[in-house]
Amino acid sequence: MNATGVIETVASCQGHPAYGLPPYVYFKTTVNVAKAIEKRLREMSSADEFFAHWEIEGRFNQDYELMFLLYSPQYHRAALDSWFPAIRLLLSRRRIDADLSQLTEEIKIAVKECSQ
Known about the structure:
The protein is an alpha+beta fold and 116 residues long. Helix content is 47%, strand content 20%. It has a 4-stranded antiparallel sheet. Helix 1 (31-46) packs across helix 4 (93-115) and helix 2 (73-81) packs antiparallel against helix 3. The chain is globular, with a radius of gyration of 14 Å. The protein starts with 7 loop residues before the first strand and ends with a helix.
């Protein structure tokens, strides 16, 4: 995401099944770029291009700057609501990795479309 030149990642995690931690990316960008990514995510989700649903949520940081969280509610629920979150995420590892690879490409496309 940082390679796009218009997104600055603040924190991220590819997910750690051993600890029951789901994947996410917390980042800073313009509203227009975040909007373009969200639009792309919705288009891809409706075409069933991802194993899980992914979305962007806006949040203000401690300095009242608007930041964005890219995450999968499905993987977050699996980590938080399950008696055995590590096992559920571990079983999803290949799917998570495939989604993260696809997300990389979709973000590049969204940023390119946004800059045109």
